[in-house]
């Protein structure tokens, strides 16, 4: 029997990358996102290329009813080997200028959805004494960025949630990882939430491809290893800026150059 993986936000970017990587490792997949057309195209491609089974589960993960359907699907499957909580978005702007519904939607998709899907998946994983969960956070969860209040807050919350969960699940042989990517080439930068960001000003060495991010995440997924920052440049950036007492100031200056207002 093939292992089964469920990936949220599989219709593009990092989620699409996980789907391709896991398909190549002979996982069956459940793909979740709003754009069913994209998920169906990916399903056809992966099924014909790898001979696996892919189920498409369209859902808006800012909506309670849809989150409940995904939770139920997780409880219904016989054995989920890997859950990837990846769906997310950002909305740049001063906290007060961003509509409250947008903030609450981000809180829901990054934190509440992740918490609910982990809670649905873990009992069966514990029973089988194996399984993995990847919660896609961000380097934005490791230090504050202006005009990113809810993004930084929810991604930081994901890291702390995952650290605690990883410790609890290690004795049950379950791997729980918070993945903290830096700048990764995806469509997220073309979404309306990123309007005004001067991506061309971000140094090339800070960018990573989806493939490298996903490969590092999967290679480092193991019980008791709660946080993965993919890419050497990102780890150096983390040590140099985020842990440095003056790093926050420098980081803020850099950000105002990337996002002039
Ligand atoms: N790219 C980066 O530089 C970067 C860096 C750090 C962290 N991340 C994180 O990586 C994750 C994936 O982002 P990405 O860069 O791959 O961006 P992306 O290409 O825009 O993908 C985002 C995915 O999330 C899904 N999604 C968004 N809103 C949704 C909703 N309401 N309900 C269900 N699914 C929804 C999208 O699908 P639909 O639109 O079809 O619903 C899409 O599949 C995010 O959590 C992001 O915060 C990205």
Describe the structure.
- It is a single chain.
- The radius of gyration is 18 Å and the shape is globular.
- It has a seven-stranded parallel beta sheet with strand order 3-2-1-4-5-6-7, with helices on both faces.
- It is of the alpha/beta class.
- β2, α2 (36-50) and β3 (54-58) form a beta-alpha-beta unit.
- It has a single domain (4-258), classed as NAD(P)-binding Rossmann-like Domain (Rossmann fold, 3-Layer(aba) Sandwich), CATH 3.40.50.720.
- The mean pLDDT is 96.
- It starts with a strand and ends with a helix.
- The protein has helices at 13-24, 36-50, 64-76, 100-128, 149-169, 210-219, 232-242, 247-258, and strands at 4-8, 28-33, 54-58, 82-85, 131-136, 174-179, 227-228.
- It binds NADP nicotinamide-adenine-dinucleotide phosphate.
- NADP nicotinamide-adenine-dinucleotide phosphate (NAP) is lined by residues 9-15, 33-35, 59-62, 86-89, 109, 136, 138, 181, 183-184, 186-188, 191.
């Amino acid at each position: 029997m093939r292992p089964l993986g469920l990936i949220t936000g599989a219709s593009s970017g990092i989620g699409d990358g996980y789907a391709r990587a896991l398909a190549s490792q002979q996982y069956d997949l459940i793909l979740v996102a709003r754009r069913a057309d994209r998920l169906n195209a990916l399903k056809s491609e992966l099924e014909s290329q790898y001979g696996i089974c892919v189920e498409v589960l369209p859902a808006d993960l800012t909506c309670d009813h849809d989150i409940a359907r995904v939770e139920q699907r997780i409880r219904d499957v016989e054995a989920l080997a890997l859950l990837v909580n990846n769906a997310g978005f950002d909305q740049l702007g001063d906290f007060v200028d961003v509509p409250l519904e947008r903030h609450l939607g981000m809180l829901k998709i990054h934190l509440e959805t992740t918490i609910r899907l982990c809670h649905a998946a873990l009992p069966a994983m514990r029973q089988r004494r194996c399984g993995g969960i990847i919660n896609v956070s961000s380097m934005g969860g490791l230090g504050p960025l202006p005009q990113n209040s809810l993004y930084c807050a929810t991604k930081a919350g994901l890291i702390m949630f995952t650290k605690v969960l990883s410790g609890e699940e290690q004795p049950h042989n379950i791997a729980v990882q918070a993945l903290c990517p830096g700048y990764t080439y995806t469509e997220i930068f073309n979404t309306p939430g990123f309007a005004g960001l001067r991506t061309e000003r971000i140094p090339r060495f800070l960018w990573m491809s989806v493939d490298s991010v996903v490969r590092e995440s999967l290679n480092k997924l193991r019980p008791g290893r709660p946080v993965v920052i993919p890419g050497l440049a990102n780890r150096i950036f983390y040590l140099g800026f985020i842990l440095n007492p003056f790093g926050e100031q420098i980081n803020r200056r850099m950000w105002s150059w990337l996002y002039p207002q």
